[in-house]
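In the current project phase, the collection of sequences with tokenised folds has grown. A sample record is quoted in full directly below:
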Amino acid sequence: MQTTYTMDPQNQNTSLQRLQNVEKRIVRVLELASSVMDEWASPSGPRKELVNNHCSEFMQLIKDIQVTLREEIKSACEYRPFEKCDYVPRISNEICCKKLDHVIAQLDEMKHTIEGYHTTA
């Protein structure tokens, strides 16, 4: 059974909590990786059981992180608070205005070049 998450205020809190848990899992993954590296660097050699346990936990945490992030990304894509936002058209208009300013500047340069040509000829 797949749970669908919406971004209402109640679920935003749980979404934030899920992402905070992911952050904690990432920290734990780094700790495990560090412990395994320490084991491998040990002068007496690595303890096989400890390395195996850490590697198993590492892999499980990576899978959990991946699943949670995939669910969070999917729920974020379903939530579109900016559907009526005018950002894209506004930016497009600003870009068009800049392009027109550039064209006008180029035309002015051409006008001055032509005027300069006529005065010297």
In short: Residues 1-9 have pLDDT under 50 and may be disordered. The first helix runs from residue 9 to 41. The helical segments are 9-41, 48-78, 87-120.
